[in-house]
Amino acid sequence: MSKFLAPIHTWLFNKIKLYEGLESDLVNAYTEKYGESVKSLYKNIEEKHGYPLENKPIEELIDVSNIHGWLQHKISLAETRQAAFITEIFNNHNKEEALNIALDLYAKQASICAEEAKEKYQISTPEEMYNALNSYIIEGMPCDRVNDITVSSEDKLQWETALCLHKNYWDAVGGDINVFYTLREAWIKAFIETLNSSFTYKVTHNATETPVSVNEIIKK
Q1: pTM for the predicted model, two decimal places
Q2: Residue 36 phi/psi, 5° resolution?
Q3: Nearest to 215 by CA among 142, 134, 144, 109
Q4: Per residue in 64-80, pLDDT tens?
Q5: Apex CA 209: angle with CA 129 and CA 12, to 5°?
Q6: Which of 11, 116, 192, 209 has the most C-beta neighbours closer than 10 Å?
């Protein structure tokens, strides 16, 4: 079956699994903080928005007759489910406290991924750091091509994001897309600063115009 798959499909599958790992960490942390009712809440969300991937190789799970569609669907489920879960937690508990728990988990995962990336990828320039980053975060399907590099030097990489692929998922569950971007910014910042402590990540969001964001990996 694997002969139908390309490396890019496994690459994307692994990013979905990583995002679902965050979801699992959130469920555990919020259960520890707020009690067993969190598990009941999450079960209801799973039943409504679909279940995470089984712990099996991609070859045993994917629909080889519709590889692209299957992966796109799994991204949609993962993003919607996490948006719904975080939104419900924020609605039912202290939002600032719940956000700080999520920020901590996001940063921890990012740092772990960065340590792995140091061993797997060439990361001596900002552009190489950016390429490594894209092996971990979900930004739609590769064919979506929402990011465009506008500056690349030894001290800075800048890229523009043409449109937001995530807002619809948050809107669908009555969530706030700004929460997603607060968490993503924390993830990327921790990832970059763990990769190379001389660099950091900055982002400027545009609410009413294109590009929707201007991102920088920049020397401190």
Answers
A1: 0.95
A2: -65, -20
A3: 134
A4: 999 999 999 999 999 99
A5: 35
A6: 192
